[in-house]
Design a protein that fits this description.
Elements lengths: L54 E3 L6 E2 L2 E2 L16 E2 L1 E3 L15 E6 L18 E2 L6 E3 L2 E6 L4 E7 L3 E8 L2 E9 L11 E8 L4 E8 L6 E9 L5 E6 L21 E4 L2 E9 L3 E10 L3 H11 L5 H16 L2 E4 L3 H14 L4 E2 L6 E3 L5 E3 L6 E2 L1 E2 H4 L3 H8 L1 H17 L8 E3 L2 E2 L8 H10 L8 H12 L7 H7 L10 H21 L3 H10 L7 E2 L4 E2 L27 H4 L7 H7 L3 H13 L18 E2 L2 E2 L19 H14 L15 H11 L1 E2 L7 E4 L6 E5 L5 E7 L7 E7 L2 E2 L4 E3 H5 L2 E8 L4
Parallel strand pairs: 35-39
Antiparallel strand pairs: 1-5, 2-3, 4-7, 6-12, 8-9, 9-10, 10-11, 11-19, 12-18, 13-14, 13-17, 14-15, 15-19, 16-18, 20-34, 21-24, 22-23, 25-26, 26-27, 28-29, 30-31, 32-33, 33-38, 34-35, 36-37, 36-39
């Protein structure tokens, strides 16, 4: 996803039944986390699209080391590493499967014995409040996490609502039991990241406060309200900030234990208890993007009682409802495990970003009221425009329409007057290339799924964003019809991505009868042709004088004009016009040889050794599945005279890149994009060019699937003679009528009916 991203290995869920119904899907989703350096997803508790994503942190690493970027921090994009042996606490906000990070807010850790207010180290956990743990005591389900913390002998359990994290800690008998609230901890942390933290102890069970940080999101403020099930005896804190030049006249107070107001940049607080054997201390911890009062209202509204199991069960019922939108049958246990884990991962992000009363913090740092929609954040659009949002357009179009309205609210509040690129928590992070929100917006409106959106206003926002001359080479792109290599380090991939986005704008303009705009952006959408070099046979960095750069290696991923990929993969990035691309590259025969070679060439490690975002785990030959720009590639055979090669390649990718093991995903999940690819491809079709109503046919990897549509209809996929060997399609029937091509439309799906595949071990 991000320019700093690696192929985090995301763990898949474990499902043990071969055929499952809508009443028991959730018990088969047991997300745990991968091995080695790839802890970019977390095993904690969350409800679908929840603001709170409560998870253990297994270590702390600073983003900075000796004044430079610390590569080890990359392992902790989600805070959790499967190979680690200790836990430092449980924090309330996380990104799922990203390769750059932030968050990790409000870390809580139970402790027993002598109070220590430092996390200690992994090799000496008892030098601080961290604890050893064993995976044998971990239980991770949808909206539930449990683990035994060996050193304090405390069992930790957690569950959530949308805005509240619910902790339950079972203590031993002790007159030295503590709850630590670490306001310093964070993911991708560094000493200056905290701008301000504040904590107000209202009474012996209720605490409120906030944290303001300057990280990936440079002006992020998050408020909290925390309530204990049992009064604490004493409380206190330690301020780890350097002494400030001026501190006012607060020295007149004895600000030692039990002082009710705490503020500073680097604070850890503690709360003391006496506990009996197996006594449970519960904590409800609510978040708000708006205010402490908002957090308190969220807490009281969503968790009015102290019933942990009720909250857990309610959250799991929410997951049951979401997972039940697609019911599959398969003879292969692994396929079921992979599919419902992918469904789970696809419904974690984007995240709800507003209080229960509809108030939220906007990009202008003012508070706003969501009028008739739910406001969302965590838009990793370079990734998710490809398949995740198109998936929502089938199984949850109303929710996706709210996401579109959230993007338009972002535009209205943006000081730069742009739609989101990579946005989170009332901030634009400007990460990655393209302006792919236009793809999401156009796709939703064209498919008729954004009836609550002012379509002309949306188009105008797309146009304004695409004409923003001083952003990421757009001015050069507009004036020269490509971005010169000297002017931008990712000149080729940005030219290609802008061309696709411009095609989306043209399609939306066409739907709205905006002919002048259609003509402008249709012409711009052909700019991909200007970076294709017929001599080298690749998309190729082009200089300002019109010549192609001489020093060029199509295998290398660094300093070749591309972002997170090489020329071999990016040359195929023309999702909106495959037919013309095939002609440019010499027609069917030469094009097929090219794509075949992409899959068969063994790319040596030296070509991606210097990157964080590409590792061997996500590569098949020279095809980089673990990076999103290649996700449509296997489907391009459908535009040639050998569509059976799409069927062959898709089934091969499904088996090699997705497995129900701790290291089972060949790349970061990227807030659901890798999982959305799996869902579509398992069902047998894929949106090569969102903004079009067309889906390319692949090779279904299940016996049967029923998609529950929001309009009350169902779309059934029935696969005859399905097996690991029978990957080739002999015939396709749509409602009993044979298809004459390897494409279906969005209308075919939304009208309901049955798509029947007849499979064979031999291609036609």
């Amino acid at each position: 996803m991000t320019a700093f991203r690696n192929f985090g290995i995301v763990v898949l869920a474990f499902c043990f039944a071969l055929q499952i119904s809508a009443q028991n899907l959730v018990k088969y989703v047991k997300p745990i986390i991968g091995t080695e350096r790839m802890g970019h997803t977390y095993p904690g508790a969350t409800v679908p699209y929840g603001m709170v994503q409560l998870s253990p942190e297994t270590d702390t690493q600073s983003y900075e080391l000796n004044g430079k970027y610390n590569p080890d921090v990359y392992k902790y994009c989600a805070g959790y590493q499967y190979e680690d042996k200790t836990i430092v606490g449980f924090s309330h906000t996380h990104f799922s499967g990203t390769g750059h990070s932030d968050l990790g807010d409000f870390l809580i850790m139970p402790e027993v014995g002598t109070l220590m207010l430092n996390p200690g180290t992994a090799d000496k956990p008892r030098s601080g409040y961290r604890s050893a743990f064993s995976h044998s005591t971990e239980i991770s389900e949808a909206n539930y996490y449990k683990v035994k913390l060996d050193d304090p002998n405390v069992v930790a359990e957690m569950t959530t609502t949308t805005r509240v994290g619910f902790h339950q800690y079972t203590f031993p008998k002790s007159d030295q039991s503590h709850i630590i609230l670490d306001l310093m901890a964070g993911i991708y942390n560094y000493p200056e990241k905290n701008v301000r933290t504040y904590l107000h102890v209202i009474n012996d069970t209720l605490v409120v406060g906030y944290r303001e940080t300057n990280g990936w999101a440079r002006t992020r403020t998050l408020y909290f309200a925390m309530v204990f099930s049992k009064p604490f005896i004493h409380f206190g804190y330690k301020n780890f900030s350097p002494r400030t030049t001026y501190g006012g006249f607060w020295g007149q107070f004895n600000r030692t234990p039990d002082f009710p107001e705490i503020t500073g940049k680097q604070i850890r607080a503690y709360f003391d208890f006496n506990t009996e054997e197996n006594e449970k201390i519960k904590i409800k911890f609510a978040l708000s993007p708006v205010s402490m009062d908002g957090a308190l209202n969220n807490l009281r509204t969503e968790t009015p009682r102290w019933d942990f199991d009720e909250v857990k069960n309610n959250g799991q019922q929410q997951w049951e409802k979401e997972l039940s939108k697609i019911i599959i049958k398969s003879d292969n246990k692994d396929d079921l495990e992979n599919f419902y884990t992918s469904m789970y991962h696809a419904m974690i992000n984007p995240t709800i970003y507003m209080d229960v009363d509809g108030s939220y913090r906007g990009l202008d740092q003012n508070n706003h009221q969501a009028d008739g929609f739910i406001n969302y954040t965590t838009f990793s659009l370079w990734d998710t425009h490809r398949a995740l949002h198109p998936l929502f357009n089938i199984i949850d179009p109303k929710r996706n329409a709210d996401m579109v309205r959230s993007m338009l609210a972002h535009f209205d509040q943006s000081p730069e007057h742009m739609l989101p690129v990579w946005s989170n928590s009332a901030n634009e992070n400007w990460c990655m290339s393209g302006y792919h929100s236009v793809s999401v917006i156009a796709d939703a409106i064209i498919k008729g799924n954004a009836t609550n959106v002012d379509a002309d206003k949306a188009l105008n926002a797309c146009i304004t964003t695409a004409r923003h001359r001083d952003y990421a080479g757009i001015g050069y792109y507009m004036d020269m019809n490509y971005i010169p290599d000297e002017k931008n380090g990712v000149s080729v991939s940005s030219t290609l991505e802008y061309a696709y986005d411009d095609w989306c704008i043209a399609q939306l303009a066409k739907k709205l009868n905006r002919t002048e705009i259609y003509n402008e952006f249709k012409k711009r959408s052909e700019n991909y042709k200007n970076v294709y070099d017929s001599v080298s046979g690749f998309m190729h960095p082009k200089l300002a004088d019109g010549s192609f750069r001489k020093n060029f290696d199509p295998f290398t991923t660094i300093n070749q004009g591309f972002i997170e990929g090489n020329a071999w993969n990016y040359t195929l990035y023309v999702p909106h016009d495959p037919a013309t691309l095939i002609k440019m590259m010499g027609g069917d025969k030469r094009f097929i040889i090219y794509v075949d070679s992409l899959f068969s060439y063994n790319l040596p490690d030296k070509y991606f050794a210097e990157t964080e975002d590409i590792t061997r785990d996500g590569i098949i030959g020279n095809y980089v599945h673990g990076n999103e720009p290649s996700h449509h590639v296997a489907y391009l055979y459908d535009w040639t005279n050998k569509p059976w090669k799409t069927q062959e390649k898709i089934r091969m990718i499904l088996k090699r890149m997705y497995k129900p093991t701790p290291d089972g995903l060949g790349g970061n999940d990227d807030t659901g994009q890798m999982s959305a690819w799996y869902i579509f491809s398992t069902l047998g079709f894929y949106p090569v060019a969102p903004g079009s109503n067309q889906y390319a046919i692949g090779s279904p990897a299940i016996n049967n699937a029923t998609i529950q549509l929001q309009n009350g209809k169902t779309f059934v996929i029935d696969v005859k003679n399905q097996s690991d060997k029978n990957v080739f399609i002999q015939k396709i029937l749509l409602n009993g009528k044979e298809l004459k091509s390897f494409f279906i439309t969005h209308e075919d799906i939304m009208n309901g009916g049955v798509l029947t595949f007849y499979m064979s071990a031999k291609h036609s």
